[in-house]
Amino acid sequence: MSEKSSDRSSVAETEAEIRYYGQKLNELRSRALEDPEGFWAEVAENLTWFKRWDKILEWNPPFARWFVGGVLNASYNALDVNLKRGLKNKVAIFWEGEEGITRTITYYQLWREVNKFANVLKKLGVKKGDRVSIYLPMIPELPIAMLACARIGALHSVVFSGFSASALADRINDAEAKVLITADGLYRRGKVIPLKKSADEALGMSKSVEKVVVVKRIGLEDTPMKEGRDYWWDDLMKEAEPYCPPEPVEATDPLFILYTSGTTGKPKGVVHSTGGYLVWVWATLKWAFNPTPDDIWWCTADIGWITGHSYIVYGPLLHGLTQIMYDGAPDYPAPDRWWELVEKYGVTIFYTAPTAIRMHMKFGEKWAKKHDLSSLRILGTVGEPINPEAWRWYHEVIGGGRCPIIDTWWQTETGGFMISPAAIDLVPLKAGSATFPLPGVHAEVVDEDGNPVKPFERGYLVLLAPWPGMLMTLWRDPERYRDVYWSKFQPNESLEFKIKPPAIYYTGDYAMKDEEGYFWLMGRADDVIKVAGHRIGTAELESAFVSHPAVAEAAVIGKPDPIKGESIVAFLILKSGYEPSDELRDELRMHIRKTIGPVATPEAIFFVSSLPKTRSGKIMRRLLKAVVSGSKLGDVTTLEDASSIEEAKRAVEMLRKAMGEKS
Ligand code: PRX
Fold first, then answer.
1. Which residues contact residue 133 at a Cβ distance below 8 angstroms, ignoring those fewer than 6 apart?
2. DSSP secondary-structure letter at 385?
3. What percentage of the chain exceeds 90 in pLDDT?
4. CA-to-CA distance for 158 and 611, rounded, in angstroms?
5. For the residues 56-80, what does the mean pLDDT come to?
6. 135-411-307-328 Cα dihedral, nearest 10 degrees
7. How remote is the CA of residue 325 from the centroid of ligand 1, in Å?
8. From the CA of 389, how far away is ligand 1's center (Å)?
9. What band does 652 get if pLDDT is binned at 50, 70 and 90?
10. What's the CA gap between 575 and 33, in Å, rounded?
């Protein structure tokens, strides 16, 4: 196949020293396939149920209901159960803020705070099934607020604190949240960002929120507080009752909504169930990282994304682990901040994103070498494909050549890891491959017609069977759920799969398998860009651009970036009366930061007078990508106006020359 893939497969030999063989995982896989009822019942026994389920799975494709009839509570499983098994005084969270302050929270203390805040929410009128939006930095109040929602059966909808006011407003409005929890501000690289101001702006655009709780993270003097609507967290907590009985929740009741980008402008509200999701998170964490009671876990993700939901909040707490939570930039005040924390707390399992690894690679190994990282025993990555160079650097420089790298492929929608090495039973690793599907996951790589492709051929990654962690639906939009995930490939008798699925889940990813069946993830196949691991829809960016008065039409693509994986490049047609200029470019950049958030800041903006389109009027992003990367243009016969691609190319060249690397 391509040069890239043969380079990747040759890596297999060089990493062959990490060999731990065993049959355990294969046995689990066969059982999950042959006796799903028995298999999942056994796994689910690891949680505490108030009432056992009547039925493991009700599968009316594409809607799955797991552990039907089962009753449990997520916060009870994450907290009370640990107190009962003797972990009362174990540290749940070692927290450190960017400015150097620390907090140590035991399971008992966390349980207490969650109980009190659950009572606060009740007092504010939050009931079972209500939605609570949470817009907080990485402070302990974030997991406390989430678990308090779970305790009373309310759904949390966490919005990443790097999102803008209008992105927050969209999410509040879609979920019709009753309460918003936010903070006065946050620190980023030493600067104070006044978060409450953004929250207020968002509240100006939404009607559903009745009460706002504000955490004093910074102590900003001029934080605006609206009488009768806004309350300080500490004031409410002072008066809260200490115990709140956990609400019995059906396994098939939703636990939370988490918005993610898709291929249209409107973010999708991914809804996760309580029972299936918790079972999946428990099991996948166990299989992939096999944590022991002495481990010090550190997942560097922000809780605003699914990784933080599953592997900072629910997973590690279900397992009674001690973890690090850090609220700050990885390179502040110096590029060794992370390594300093690993040394200080003796982190044993470290889970991060390829983009962060590449950033640290760029800083150079001297920063890691300043610290004793010998406590580390397992490393993990998530969010985007990891290139073999970064894999090797991570393995050697951070892991000292002794830690396996658990490259976990999954999505917001899958709830937890899907394709990943499993520390309970490691296979030989290959740098850049997520290895094999976990038990209960049936993944295939197929061509446009849905048939499995040959080894080393690139195809679409699909999932053939329901799994407990799968999303239930999209919030109040079951049709879109069906459309987005279950309509690209229709099952039919002629498809050559080992099992006959009644429905096929389309992941939106490209992948291939090598001759040994290892999976290699190869990026998004749809119009979604992964910037530093963050998922951003091109349509979302385009609609943000055209909301600016100067922009008539916009086309956005992802350009390969050595650190961030991909960066955002926009082609814009201006309305008449507007002229291209550096000032306008800066203004548009700011406009995007304001409409979506700093994660979506475009790397380059090019002004053009037309865009390459198909005859049916669809923008051919593939061609724009080719122009930007300087590769061959490929088939242009469907272009509406072949001259437009030439023009786009000319415009890019002109701009490149005129602006050097500045754009
Ligand atoms: O393209 C895949 C990529 O991230 C997408 C899911 O993004 P999101 O829902 O934001 O969740 C990120 C954290 C789970 C996938 O469709 N992706 C995630 N993990 C990997 C990956 N690509 C390659 N290798 C991975 N390990």
1. 156, 157, 158, 159, 168, 171, 172, 175, 177, 179, 180, 181, 209
2. P
3. 82
4. 37
5. 98
6. -60
7. 22
8. 19
9. low
10. 57
Residues with CB under 6 A from ligand 1: 260, 305-307, 382-385, 407-412, 434, 507-509, 521, 524, 530, 535
Per-residue b or e along 563-584, where b marks 16 or more CB atoms closer than 10 Å to that residue's CB: bbbbbbbbbbbbeeebebeeeb
- The sign one gets for the Cα dihedral 361, 299, 172, 470 is positive
Residue carrying structure tokens 């400015």: 99
User: Over the stretch 407-454, which tens digit does the pLDDT of each residue have?
Assistant: 999 999 999 999 999 999 999 999 999 999 999 999 999 999 999 999
Q: What is the pTM of this model?
A: 0.92
- Distance in Å, CA 178 to ligand 1 centroid: 31
Atom nearest to 301 CA in ligand 1: 13
- The pLDDT tens digits of the residues spanning 581-592 come to 999 999 999 999
The encoded tokens of residue 275 equal: 């029972």
Spatial CA neighbour of 277 closest among 457, 109, 65: 65
Which protein residue's CA is at the shortest distance from atom 22 of ligand 1? Answer: 384
Residue 34: pLDDT band with limits 50, 70, 90: confident
What's phi and psi for 155, nearest 5 deg?
A: -95, 130
Atom of ligand 1 nearest to the CA of 507: 16
Question: Would you state the pLDDT for residue 330?
Answer: 95
Q: How far apart are CA 154 and CA 169, in angstroms?
A: 19
In the chain, the percentage of residues whose pLDDT exceeds 70 is 92
Which one, of 410, 426, 438, 360, lies nearest residue 533 by Cα? Answer: 410
Q: Which of 531, 535, 540 is nearest to 507 (CA)?
A: 535
Task: Please tell me whether the peptide bond between 62 and the residue prior to it is cis, using omega within 30 degrees of 0.
Answer: yes
Cβ atoms of residues 479 and 496 within 8 Å: no
The token duo for 539 is: 């349509």
CA dist., res. 660 & res. 663, Å (int): 7
Q: Best mutation site among 158, 413, 510, 530 for ligand 1, i.e. most ligand atoms within 8 A of its Cβ?
A: 530
pLDDT per residue over 246-259, tens digit each? 999 999 999 999 99
What is the whole-number distance in angstroms between the Cα of residue 410 and the centre of ligand 1?
5
pLDDT at 207 over 90: yes
Among 409, 485, 519, say which to mutate for ligand 1: greatest number of ligand atoms within 8 Å of CB: 409
In the chain, count of helices (H) and strands (E)? 22, 30
Ligand 1 pocket test target in 307, 384, 408, 510 with most atoms within 8 Å of CB: 384
**Helix/strand/coil (H, E, C) string of 578-630?**
CCCCHHHHHHHHHHHHHHCCHHHCCCEEEECCCCCEECCCCECHHHHHHHHHC
58 membership: H or E segment, kind and range: strand 55-60
pLDDT attached to residue 632: 66
